[in-house]
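Continuing the series of single-chain predictions for the mutant panel. This is the parent chain; the variants come on the following pages.
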Amino acid sequence: MYFQTPGEKIKEIRKLLGIRQSDLENIGVTRNFISMVEGNRRRLGEEQARVMFQIFLKKADELGLTLDIDCDYLSTSPKKAALIYCSKKLLEDLSNDEIDYILKISLEYSLHQIQAEAYILKANRVFDKGIYKEAFVYYYNALDLYNEIKEHDKNAFLYNKLGKCKGNTLDYLEALKYFEKSYQNALDIGDISTQNNSLYNIALCNKKLGNIENALKSINEVIDVFYKENDFTNFISAIIIKANCLLAIKEYQQAIDLYNEIIPVFTDETHCLLGYVYHNLGLIYLEKGMLEEALLCYNRAITIRELSNPSKLARTQIEKAKVFMKFKMYEQATNMTKNAIETAKQYNDTEFIIDGYYQLEKIYDETNRLDLMEEVYLNLIELLEGIDKKDDKIKIYIKLSLLTKYDPYKYEEYLKKAVDL
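Parent structure:
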């Protein structure tokens, strides 16, 4: 799209209506001045533009034409016209190509706020598809642009999104830094919703990093807030993290009691959060060696997740496979783990695709199926590319070299890769 200069618009409308430059002299300017305006060497004053607009409307009416413009149209610069156009378009449900076009216009006319909003739209699209690395770049570009124009109201939201991108690629230390920035920015602007969400994510990251004391401190604060606000979903989510922290420090009965307290609160027996509750109860019973109870909980969680939260189904399938392993039911464990990997791939759940392959490694090790190990390790190496897990990759390459010690070519290749890392 080409956005015309005021001079180009005046010239186009004048010719459309059959008006000569000399006919416009009665607005108080010379024909030479009109020529310079149309050549973008001079600009009309506000009153001159208003009178010219009236002349154009009158002539159009005489010709039976409709001019769908207002008085500002004649004096609007290309940059302002581009801004108006892009602002209206951003209110629509745009395709990816249309968002790219808005980005192109915003770059051409240095519309930084429009550019930032378009980047957020692109980021949201790819984030929802599980393409977190690409989403991170778009969110970061938006943050840079808002900081450049000193618009900081979106910082809390963007830091929170950046943290989620890092968390979803298993970089919990980096994620924690962004969530802490989000929390501080939310405090500064009084954004209570983002503040609570960030605090929840801070607790989750600390739990993932093994900082249980810090996690419990944050999550207890969030629980109090959500309870007072009667926010059922966030309250239950926070309770689940607290129970997971209790599990991590082996306070099993406290965690079980906490879950048993909230199960009766659910009125919908297929609620996705109830799937989390039964899944996590299964974890506790498995940890305690109560295999029958664990299996019952996992079966309940699978039933719920198949109906209301299939993106988390792989996690329960992997845990159920562990119960099968305890019962020495290796064929069932293998099939369940392979199903879990396929489910996790479907939802781009990298963490549990990796967990699934590590689970297969254990199964093949216990059943002495070394012939299947190499494929498992190579899949893990591919998954760990681009993730800050160098130590894990070194260990896998060493395992590969030991596995292939009777194949000199592969042995040396894998060992060299381990050394290079």
